[in-house]
Amino acid sequence: MSDQPDVPPDDVGDPGPSLMQRITGVGESARRALLLPSLALVLALLVGAVIIMLTDVDAWQLMGTDAGAAIGDMFEGVWVAYRELFAGAFGSVRGISETLFTATPLILAGLAVAIGFQAGLFNIGATGQMFVGGLFATWIALHVTLPSYLHIPLAILAAIVGGGLWGGLAGLLKAKTGAHEVITTIMLNFIAGFFVLWALKTSAFQDEGSNIPQSSPLPESVQLPTIFGDEFRVNIGLFIAIGAVFFIQWLLYRSTTGFEFRAVGSSPGASLYAGMNVAVLITLVMFVSGALSGVAGSTMTLGLPPYRVSESFPGTIGFDAIALALLGRSHPYGVLWSGLLFGALIAGGRTMQAAAGVSVDLVIVMQALIIMFIAAPELVRAVFRVEHGGEAADQVTRGWGA
Amino acid sequence: MTRFTRVVALLAVLALVLAACGGDSDDTTTTEAASETTEAPDETTTTEAASETTEAPGETTTTEAMGEFTAVATCFVTDDAGVDDRSFNASGWKGVNDALATGAVAADPIVLESTSAADYQPHVETCLAQGAEHIVTSGFKLADTTAQFAADNPDVQWTIIDFGSLGDNVTGLEYQTDEGAFAAGYLAAGMTQTGIVGTYGGVNIPTVSIFLDGYARGVAHYNEVKGADVRVIGWDVEAQDGAFTGTFDPADPQVRATCESQLDEGADIILPVGGAINLPCGTAIQDRGIEGALIGVDADAVEAMPGEYMDLWLTTILKGIDIQVQRSIEAHASGAPTGGSSSVGNLENGAIGLAPYHAWEDRVPAELAAEVEQILVDIAEGTIDWEKFVVGAG
Fold this sequence. Notes:
The structure holds two protein chains of two kinds.
Chain A lengths: L18 H6 L5 H25 L2 H7 L3 H24 L2 H26 L7 H18 L4 H30 L3 H19 L37 H18 L1 H11 L1 H6 L4 H25 L14 H11 L4 H24 L5 H15 L1 H8 L18
Helix pairs in contact in A: 2-4, 2-15, 3-4, 4-5, 4-14, 5-9, 5-12, 5-13, 5-14, 6-7, 6-8, 6-12, 6-13, 7-8, 7-12, 9-10, 9-14, 10-12, 13-14, 13-15
Chain B lengths: L1 H35 L11 H21 L5 E4 L10 H14 L8 E3 L7 H10 L4 E5 L4 H10 L4 E5 L8 E6 L2 H14 L4 E6 L4 H21 L4 E3 L1 E2 L4 E2 L10 H12 L4 E5 L5 H10 L4 E6 L2 H4 L8 E7 L1 H13 L8 E4 L6 E3 L11 H16 L13
Parallel strand pairs in B: 1-2, 1-3, 3-4, 4-5, 5-13, 6-7, 6-10, 10-11, 11-12
Antiparallel strand pairs in B: 8-9, 12-14
Helix pairs in contact in B: 3-11, 6-7, 6-12, 8-9
C-alpha cells in the first residue's frame, strides 16, 4: 500500500480528492487506508451486538420478571454468537477451508470492482460478468475433452474472454456513446442473468430429458482440485485469486498501462491532454475488470461441489464485491484482506446461525454497516474522536466517476 | 460539539436498528399468518372424501401422538430463497414446527437459511455435526447435495421437498398440484365473462408449470363437457411452454407487464404461479376497474395475504407442503419405515385442495360449484380421464 504516494492535500492547484475518490480510497495514504476500515469494522461489530441483544426474544420476555438475568442472557447471547462466528471461520480445518473457499470468488470480484474504482469507473456489473464468464467456462467444461492440466486453464481462459467481453462492452458504450457505466452494467446484469437461465435449459448444457435450469454434471477433468483433500472445499481457485492480486498490483503500480488507468481515474481531461487514448483505456479497464469477474464466476462453476451449474451461481458475490472493494480502499492488498474478512464472516455466519440461533441476515447487516460507516467517515471520526487529516475542506467536486 | 455529534450518531444508528427490527418482526408475523393458513385443506368445502382424509393428520395425530412418537432431532435447510419466502421454504419450516407441536420433533429444531448455492453443502454438514436425526432439504436445488450426503449417512433420515426419493433413507415429497389446478381451470372457464382466461408463471420449471398445465387442461375439459369455447392464454399444453415473468420478484416491472398483456388480450380470470407475483396483477385489475379475478397458489391467498385484493381471489389451489413434511417426520418418529419412496401429495390424501371462494361465494353459481366439487371427487377417486403432469426428478 505504501507504493501509493501521499499527496499533500494543500498542494497548489490540487482540487482535492473527489467524493468518489474519498469513498473508494483511491490515492490515500497507507495509514488512513488502514485506519478507517478498521474503525468501521469495530463499529459494525458493536452495532451488530446491539442488534443481537434487541432481537433476543427470549431475553426480552424475561425482562419483565427478572431484568438482571435478562440482560445477562443478552450479553451471553452476543458472546456466544461472536464466539461461534469466530470458531466457524477459524476454529477448525473445515472452518479455515470454508473461509478460504468463500473468499476466493470474493477476492477476484473485489479486484474487478477495485480496478474500476482506480480508473474512476463504478463497475456494478460483476454479477453479470460472473454469469457470462462462468457460463463460458461451463461450455468448455462440457464440450471439450482434455486432460486436467489443459482443460482447467482453457476453461478459465474462456471465462476471462467471456467476462472480459461483457465488461468491455460496458466500457465501449461509455467510451463511444457516453452511456454511464453504472446504468449499463446494471442492465447487462439482467441480460446476463436471463441469458444464463435460457442457456441452462438448452441441450448444450442441460441433462437430456430434464426440465430444470441446471447443467449436467461437469467432468472430473475440469473440476478445480481441492487443496486439503476432497473433504474440504477450498481449491486451487484460491491460488488463482492470490496470483490475480499480485498481478493487478503489478499492473496498477508497475506498468505503463496501469499508470494510464489511474491517470484516467484522476482526471480524464488531463489524460487526454497528455496524449492518452482515453476511450481505449476505458474499454480496456472494463475488459480487465470483467475478466476478473469472469474468473470469479468460473471458480463458482468449476469449483463448487456437486459440480453442477445452477441458474443463480454468482449469488450475491457481485454486490459483496463492491463492499469489499470499498473496505479494501480499492487497493489489491486491501481487497485480499477484505475478501478474507468477508469470507470469514460468511463462513462463520453459517456456524453462528446453527449454534447460536442468530439469523444469517446479521452478517449481511454487518457488511452493510461497514459500507455505511466507510461512506460516512465524519460519523466514524466523531465516534472515535479521530483528528481531521486536513482534508476537511474537501468538496464534492465531481459526481460518481464522471 | 463532538459529544453532541456522537449522541446524534448513536441515535441515528439506533433508529436504523429499530426500523430494521420493526420490519423484521412484521415479516415474521405475516409469514406465520401465511403458513397457518396452509392448514386450510381441512376446511375446504370441496369433497367429502378429500376433507375426511385431510382431517386425519390434522386432528388425530395431534391427540394420540404425544406418547407414540420418539422425538427426533430435526434440521431444516432452505434453498437460496430463504425461510421467509412466503412459499415452499416457509411452508416446509412450518411443517417442522407442526411436527414439533405433536411431539415428533425434538426441542429446538434447527433452521439453516441459504443465501446461495455455496451454502447447501456446509449447511448439511452443520446439520450432521449438530447431531440431526432427520434432515429436511427444501427444494430441487438441494437434490445433488442431499443424494450425496444421504448415501454417506445411512443412519440419518432425509426428506426432500419438491423432488423424488434419492435413496433408501430419503423420502421425496412431490405434489400432483395439477389435480387442484384442473378443478380451478374448470371453475375459471365457468366463471369467465370474456371467454378468455389467463395464466403465467415465474420460471418454467416443473413445480411451476404443473399448475399451468393442469389449469389449461381443466379449461379444455370444461369446453369438452359444455361444448364451450373458452380460450386459455399463457400456457400451451402441446409445447409445454407459455408466459413466464423470468422472476419471482413482485417488484420487477416484467411481472405486471406480463399480467397487463393478458388483460389486454381480454383475459378476466388469471392464475399467476410463483410466490407473490400475483399481487401486481391484482393492482393492474383494480387500476383498470374491470370485473376480474385471480386464483392463488400454495396457501389460501385470502388468509395468507390479507389486504386490498380480498375481492379478487376466486379461490386458491392449495399445496400442503407443511402437511407432507409433518407426515414424513411423524412417520420417522413413530418408527414406521420411511424413505426410499416418493410421497406424492394429491387430492386423495388431502395435501392438495381448493380453498373456499370467500368473496366470490355468492357469485359462483350453485350448479358450477357442484360440478367443481364433483370433479374434485372424481379426480380423488381416479374416475376422470385426463393426462396428469408427470411429477418426478425433472
